[in-house]
């Protein structure tokens, strides 16, 4: 399998090719037209657009650009992004030409982070970087899980495995598992507890436009279509667990379940909560007047993974709805709790 980096910048996009077939990994929206040209120049057919995780530092492809590329978008099952076509799990493989790409779920930077193992190499996303690791202080981050993924999974790959990270800020191209195991200062000689303490104490500034990137990427809509909720406001929305919501729904005076996903998700694989009202995120603001009857009632906002619904809940709060909560982990958590759904 041939691997090429296309951006020559801090954010890396990789093109994988094998026997005339191609996969584009972590494309950046503003470079979209150059990807089209590069695919044409190499005379390869694009089979997949793969995102190693939900990015906070750049705009990912939107629905229209994905359609122009004509290939399905592949992300881990925990991805909150509505325009994903193919959700994959740990250990799954994707056929590319004569070879395969294997998914290694590596949560920590985000819950949906994954690494891609290809012959002789591994694309590590923002999990393992050259002499570093992806920050774990964004919503959903988990330093302990990242330590487990790196030391328990990646460091068990052969030492000579080439590591291609999603970022490098010093212009280096790649490293190897053996070198990182021996010399990466975040991991070498450090216990899990020490790693968690180190990561939780980094105190990194939030990158520019993180809110915009996250909310646009997670909603599948454009920046001018999305009303930005402040990160701090999102954090202030009460969070409720799936089991507690199910119990409340059986009690007298049940809450309204407001599902803000797309219609095809509502009736798709994960189904929806019985009696849920579907108002897709992009239509929510417009339809607020119709929800006026619920202004003093309990509302539980639901989406796939709990990210879009956090923004929707914040929007409802600002609009004067007083008793709004967000379903923690969304329909993915509902499914994990084996609670009943309709499709
Ligand atoms: Fe990232």
Q: Describe it for me?
A:
There is one protein chain. The protein has 12 helices and 19 strands. With 343 residues, the chain is an alpha/beta fold. Strand 11 (128-129) and strand 12 (132-133) form a beta hairpin. Helix 3 (143-152) packs across helix 5. The chain has helices at 32-42, 63-69, 143-152, 177-183, 192-200, 210-219, 231-236, 242-250, 263-266, 281-284, 308-318, 330-336, and strands at 2-5, 14-18, 21-25, 45-50, 73-76, 86-88, 93-96, 99-105, 114-118, 121-125, 128-129, 132-133, 162-165, 175-176, 239-240, 256-259, 277-278, 299-302, 324-327. The structure holds fe (ii) ion. The site of fe (ii) ion has 7 residues, from loops.
List key phrases describing it.
alpha/beta, globular, 343 residues, 19 strands, binds fe (ii) ion, 6-stranded mixed sheet
Distance between the termini: 40 Å
Q: Helix/strand/pairing class, anyone?
A: alpha/beta
Assembly type of the chains comes to single chain
In total, the number of strands is 19
Biggest sheet, in brief? 6 strands, mixed
Unreliable sequence segments? 225-234
What proportion of the residues is helical, as a percent range? 25-40%
| Strands ordered across the widest β-sheet | 1-2-3-4-5-6
Small molecules (ligands, ions, cofactors) in the structure? fe (ii) ion
Shape: globular
Kindly estimate the percentage of residues that lie in beta strands according to DSSP. Answer: 15-25%
Radius of gyration: 21 Å
Mean pLDDT reading: 90
The number of helical runs is: 12
């Amino acid at each position: 399998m041939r691997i090429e980096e296309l951006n020559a910048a801090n954010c890396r996009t990789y093109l994988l090719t094998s026997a005339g077939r191609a996969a584009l990994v972590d494309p950046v929206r503003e470079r979209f037209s150059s990807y089209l040209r590069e695919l044409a120049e190499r005379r390869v057919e694009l089979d997949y657009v793969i995102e190693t995780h939900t990015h906070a530092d750049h705009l990912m492809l939107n629905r229209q650009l994905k359609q122009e590329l004509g290939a399905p978008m592949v992300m881990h099952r925990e991805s909150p992004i509505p325009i994903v076509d193919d959700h994959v799990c740990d250990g799954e493989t994707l056929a590319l030409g004569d070879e395969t790409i294997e998914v290694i779920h590596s949560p920590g930077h985000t819950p949906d982070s994954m690494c891609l193992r290809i012959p002789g190499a591994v694309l590590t996303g923002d999990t393992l970087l050259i002499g570093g690791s992806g920050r774990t202080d964004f919503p959903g981050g988990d330093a302990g899980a990242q330590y487990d993924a790196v030391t328990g999974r990646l460091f068990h790959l052969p030492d000579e495995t080439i590591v291609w990270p999603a970022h490098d800020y010093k212009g280096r191209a790649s490293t190897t598992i053996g070198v990182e195991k021996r010399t990466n200062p975040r991991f070498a000689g450090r216990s899990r507890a020490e790693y968690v303490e180190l990561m939780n104490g980094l105190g990194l500034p939030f990158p520019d436009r993180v809110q915009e990137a996250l909310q646009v990427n997670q909603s599948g809509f454009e920046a001018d279509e999305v009303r930005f909720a402040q990160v701090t406001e999102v954090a202030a929305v009460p969070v409720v667990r799936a089991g507690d919501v199910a119990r409340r729904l059986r009690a007298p005076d049940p809450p309204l379940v407001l599902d803000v996903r797309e219609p095809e998700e509502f009736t798709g694989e994960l189904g929806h909560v019985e009696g849920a009202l579907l108002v897709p995120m992009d239509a929510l603001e417009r339809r607020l007047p119709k929800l006026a009857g619920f202004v003093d009632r309990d509302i539980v906002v639901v989406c796939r993974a709990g990210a879009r619904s956090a923004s929707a809940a914040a929007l409802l709060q600002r609009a004067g709805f007083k008793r709004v909560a967000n379903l923690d982990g969304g329909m993915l958590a509902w499914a994990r709790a084996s609670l009943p759904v309709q499709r």
